Amino acid sequence: MDMFTDPAFWIAVGQIIMIDILLGGDNAVVIALACRKLPPAQRTKGIIWGTAGAIVLRVILIFFALTLLAIPFLKLVGAALLVWIGVKLLAPDEEGHGDINASDKLWAAVKTIIVADLVMSVDNVIAIAGAAQSAGEHQMALVIFGLVVSIPIIVWGSQLVIKLMDRFPMIITAGGMLLGWIAGTMAVTDPAIVGHMPLASELVEGKLPEVVASVKYSAGVAGALLVLAIGVLVKRKRASAAA
Known about the structure:
Blueprint: H1 7-23, H2 25-35, H3 40-68, H4 74-90, H5 106-120, H6 122-132, H7 139-167, H8 170-187, H9 213-242
Helix pairs in contact: 1-6, 1-7, 1-8, 2-5, 2-7, 3-5, 3-6, 3-7, 4-6, 4-8, 4-9, 8-9
Transmembrane segments: 12-35, 47-67, 138-156, 168-194, 214-234
Protein name: TerC family protein
Subcellular location: Membrane
């Protein structure tokens, strides 16, 4: 229970909740579309069971992602993907959900939600795995806690969240920069390059040494600014092409 008294744990929880809210809007739309033909008495059940299945599946995927990130160079790949996801958040493509089929059968709707979430949750999984890196041995507890808190917000508060993001675009900008921050801090802790970084501690019990905090935070700031810069350039390029 000592993890609940660790400020780093709560910072990472906040990051996971923000990531899920910003990247989970499409998931809320999928849930609504998949359940729209269900009888009113079954609609809530479809939402609950579909969301529960999606949560379990996502926890499994994140577990494997956390394991894979211990392999050299994969954190660098993950960091590059996070930069791309952050840029896509700042300068999104127009995407529809016309391929989501509604069903009047409860379990068919639940299956649709789970399969669609599996296809759409790659960005969430990578981002959450990156955010959980700072939790050390409490990574999975952090992931589960963050998902449990954020999923109800996505499902039942998605409309409010969307309105807030429309009214305050800085929320989206901050979210994109947060992904860049996570990308930067992830990259400098990759096993392939951590030995070339200034270290705060030596190798203990087979674990990688800790990178000096100032280096890690500087990389995070650089990642955040990189996402912002690329996002602004992409938006300007699209505006010029449209004009």
